[in-house]
Design brief:
Layout: E1 7-9, E2 20-25, H1 33-46, E3 51-56, H2 58-63, H3 69-86, E4 93-97, H4 102-111, H5 117-122, H6 124-132, H7 134-137, H8 143-146, H9 148-158, E5 163-165, H10 171-188, E6 196-199, H11 228-236, H12 257-265, H13 268-279, H14 285-312, H15 314-342
Parallel strand pairs: 1-6, 2-3, 3-4, 5-6
Helix pairs in contact: 3-14, 4-9, 4-15, 9-10, 11-14, 12-14
The structure holds tryptophan (TRP).
Tryptophan (TRP) is lined by residues 22-26, 55, 57, 60, 152, 155-156, 164, 166, 170.
């Protein structure tokens, strides 16, 4: 079985349609442009090169939303709509719903014998998340949440995935999955594949307020579904150089969020001009923001339009998800057969 490096840069991977990619997303909210630059853009690139599977991880979403099933349900089709709007092509990539693949839950139980509680408690991703969720968990975290890396290992291995495109923050989960696989193979014989993380090196996109993180709760995110009016309002309130009071004061684009967003959305030539004129005090912030609003809107308009189409045709989205789930389940069943055989449970 493949035991290469733990991670690989997206630039370095060789296209191979016979290899499988598995990634997942928790349906807990609408996608914002941070998701686009961070994850979805690389998934769009990878779907042309590999047999790509995208899991809507509703069971995992419940590990920290068990008290809010409506939220998870409401976001399930919405997240598929977002991804379709961003360019994931259902003819190239397979969307599936975690809760409809019971083999994942079954594998999770088998794998749970192969990982200690102490190891899960040491997982840096889980540790950080538990610290952030004191309000939900109080002093003692649930068995389900502590164990979600085990269930994520089941997600990945059920599909015999070679590559898992994730952000840096997910690396400890891939590492944990690889450990489980090694343990499984050493006890029950070579059965499972050790996956590799694929890093896109996409930077985390800062919020319009300059915060390192973009998020709903922080109120600093631009959503794919935002219309021109909302974009206008958000950009007009973006953080700029606080020392720039008058229009002809020389500006400092490196600390200005409008400039930061120009670099994401505007053509290179425009970005250069914006920077030069700002430093020379030759361009006002309002003019600069208006230009940015236009450029953001240009990029988001086709995405919004595609999204709108799917909003009007939810039955199509439902069908994409159900057809994909059926395809995914066949593969998970094959894995389950192999696993049961290895574990002497093949009655
Ligand atoms: N934990 C991932 C996240 O929060 C989502 C996820 C679920 C996932 N299952 C996965 C990612 C399998 C990669 C592979 O973003």
């Amino acid at each position: 079985m493949e035991t290469d490096n733990e991670k690989i840069d997206i630039k370095d991977i060789v296209p191979d349609k016979s290899k499988r990619i598995l990634t997942g997303i928790r349906p807990t909210g609408h996608l914002h442009i941070g998701h686009y630059f961070g994850a979805a853009r690389s998934w769009c690139e990878l779907q042309d090169k590999f047999d790509t599977f995208i899991e809507v991880a509703d069971v995992q979403a419940l590990t920290d939303n068990f008290n809010n099933p409506q939220k998870v349900k409401d976001n399930t089709l919405q997240i598929v709509m977002d991804l379709l709007a961003l360019g994931i092509d259902p003819n190239k990539a397979t969307f599936f719903l975690q809760s409809m693949v019971p083999e994942i839950a079954e594998l999770t139980i088998f794998y749970s014998n192969l990982v200690t509680i102490a190891r899960l408690q040491r997982n840096p991703t889980v540790k950080t998340e538990i610290a952030q969720k004191k309000e939900l968990f109080g002093e003692s975290v649930t068995y389900g949440f502590l164990g979600y890396p085990v269930s994520q290992a089941a997600d990945i291995t059920a599909f015999d995935a070679t590559y898992v495109p994730v952000g840096e923050d997910q690396l400890p989960l891939i590492e944990q999955c690889r450990e489980i696989v090694r343990k499984f193979n050493s006890i029950y014989g070579d059965t499972l594949r050790e996956p590799m993380a694929v890093l896109s090196n996409a930077p985390r996109i800062k919020g319009l307020d300059g915060n390192e993180k973009m998020g709903k709760s922080l109120g600093n995110a631009l959503y794919l579904s935002d219309d021109l009016d909302i974009i206008r309002q958000k950009v007009m309130n973006a953080k700029t150089d606080p020392e720039r009071i008058k229009k002809d004061d020389p500006g400092h684009p490196d600390i200005c969020m409008v400039n930061y967003y120009h670099n994401l959305f505007s053509p290179e030539e425009e970005c250069k001009a914006v920077c030069e004129e700002c430093k020379a005090g030759a361009r006002g912030c309002v003019q600069c923001k208006k230009q940015l609003i236009e450029n953001i809107n240009l990029k988001l308009e086709p995405i919004r339009e595609r999204r709108h189409y799917y909003e009007e045709h939810p039955e199509e989205v439902q069908k994409i998800l159900m057809d994909g789930t059926e395809r995914a389940r066949k593969i998970a069943k094959e894995t389950m057969e192999k696993v049961k055989e290895a574990m002497m449970l093949n009655y």
